[in-house]
Amino acid sequence: MTERVEGHGGALALAALRAYGVREMFTLSGGHVFPLYDAAHTTGFPIYDVRHEQSAVFAAEAVAKLQRRPGLAVLTAGPGVTNGISGLTSAFFNASPVLVLGGRAPQFRWGSGSLQEMDHLPLVAPVTKHAETVFTADDIPRAVSAALTTALTPHRGPVFLDFPLEAIFSVGDADLPAPTPVAPVEPDPDEVTRAARLIAAAARPVIIAGSDVYAGDAVAALREAAEALQVPVFTNGMGRGALPPQHPLAFAKARRVALGDADVVVVVGTPLDFRLSFGDFGDAAVVHVVDAPTQRAGHVQPAASPAGDLRLILSAFADHTGDRADHADWIERLRTAEDAARARDAAEMAADTDPIRPARVYGELRRALAPDAITIGDGGDFVSYAGRYLEPSQPGTWLDPGPYGCLGTGMGYAMGARVSHPDRQVCVLMGDGAAGFSLMDVESLVRQRLPVVIVVGNNGIWGLEKHPMRAMYGYDVAADLQPELRYDKVVEALGGAGETVAKAADLGPALVRAFDAGVPYLVNVLTDPADAYPRSSNLA
């Protein structure tokens, strides 16, 4: 039965949001969106506010990623919306179903120079699946429901609506649309069979599983396919943890050997971008499995590319009944390389050097983090080490900026993670460069009693720029930060706590204090500026 709703525009929007499972709002206060606050406040709908709009969008994205449901950010008109565009763009690249609701200057005065008057749509349209101005209160439930359905339909992504002042403040009534179930995208069975035959017959196959495997709730199907076909699995993004590290087919350290010698590389739920050599794996055939036809790579000609619901495709791989090659020798070879790499990593993570090497930080973190801890990466050089040394043991526990590579996600992601999982550890790994983008939002975490641990790798430089620039030109510019800056004192001034660590032996006790603190706590680790992550450049 259709439900009739009435009230001001904020109440109408909130009714549609609740129907789709949205349970919280992230925002920075602005008069253009007061009715949304009124609707939330008077009905007990939680509001979390921030000090910069980008953090509101990043927090909404963290909820969308972790909980696989829509996240909501509410931004005031003009600069409120423009400040959120980097967050929207990250959500677009990460296929995160985020809804941004924006205020808008009154339509009846449009062109007269109202406060913060601008047309947002041309700015947000390129980085959203749908962008629309809703001109009447009566139309708000329809628009919100349609936008959320679009956001959840593979390939998922952010959507944007804005409301002129007279629309959101006016009273209206309308039918509340029932949530539209998103039907699975049926893959072409012939293409699925072609891919399964290639994988099963390969002598040295490899699977690389990415974020869409988690977003599409296909983790169990991935495991079934890997086990049925006996194919080693590597992961990136939110695919990390899809197979626990102790699983016999889970690999992380032997990627160079695997991709150098594989004859079939199966990339599931992640684009063939710079993180995967743009899909160039030498002589290996490429099978690219995507959740929608729009995600097929245009710059690579794969041997097969099934498109559709990842659960259906991976389950079909698991059920493949054709001839299968024996991959035991290949798996054993990779396991030998994996074990050797682990031994090298163990030595690096135990290094007792002065200054502290980043690897040692992660060695201590591996002991401090619980299996279900949410780990957030916000940085370049320092966070690159996290990808190497930390191995999530559960899916849905790893957040990084994704392929767009936008710094400043840290505090927003931390807020969204803490709201999503109030009983888990939440740990932000942050370079000292990234700290400049969002650290002020520690105040938001303190004020709203959202404790997190922040570990800053403080080497006083922009590591991914300084070293490559010196290699290219013999000098560097605009790549230095203030050495040994006391970021922990910044957090203390904002109401949290923290300490600076200069000796490797002090790392473990500092992390224990941080996780026991019950407030936002920053461990400011002075790391070696000469110890850059082993890559020539981040410009590829």
Describe the structure.
The protein contains 22 helices and 18 strands. The chain has 540 residues and is an alpha/beta fold. The strands form 4 sheets. It has a 6-stranded parallel sheet with strand order 3-2-4-5-7-6. It has a 6-stranded parallel sheet with strand order 14-13-15-16-18-17, with helices on both faces. Strand 6, helix 7 and strand 7 (159-164) form a beta-alpha-beta unit.
Layout of strands and helices, then pairs:
Blueprint: E1 3-8, H1 9-19, E2 25-27, H2 34-43, E3 47-49, H3 53-67, E4 71-75, H4 79-83, H5 85-94, E5 98-104, H6 121-124, E6 130-133, H7 140-152, E7 159-164, H8 165-169, E8 171-176, H9 189-201, E9 205-209, H10 211-215, H11 219-229, E10 233-235, H12 255-261, E11 264-268, E12 285-289, H13 310-318, H14 328-349, H15 358-368, E13 374-378, H16 381-389, E14 398-399, H17 410-420, E15 426-431, H18 435-438, H19 442-447, E16 453-458, H20 463-473, H21 487-493, E17 497-501, H22 507-516, E18 521-526
Parallel strand pairs: 2-3, 2-4, 4-5, 5-7, 6-7, 9-10, 9-11, 11-12, 13-14, 13-15, 15-16, 16-18, 17-18
Antiparallel strand pairs: 1-8
Helix pairs in contact: 1-2, 1-7, 3-5, 3-17, 11-13, 14-15, 15-16, 15-22
Relevant terms:
thiamine pyrophosphate; acetolactate synthase activity; 22 helices; 39% helix; disordered C terminus; 18 strands; 540 residues; 6-stranded parallel beta sheet; alpha/beta; Thiamin_PyroP_enz_TPP-bd_dom; DHS-like_NAD/FAD-binding_dom; single chain; EC 2.2.1.6
Share of helical residues: 25-40%
pLDDT averaged residue by residue: 95
Strand content: 15-25%
Total number of beta strands: 18
> How many angstroms does the end-to-end distance come to?
54 Å
Helix count?
Answer: 22
Query: What is the radius of gyration computed over CA atoms, rounded to a whole number of angstroms?
Result: 24 Å
Q: Major beta sheet, specifics?
A: 6 strands, parallel
Main sheet: which strands, in order across?
3-2-4-5-7-6
Shape: globular
Structural class comes to alpha/beta
The parts where pLDDT drops under 50 for at least 5 residues are 535-540
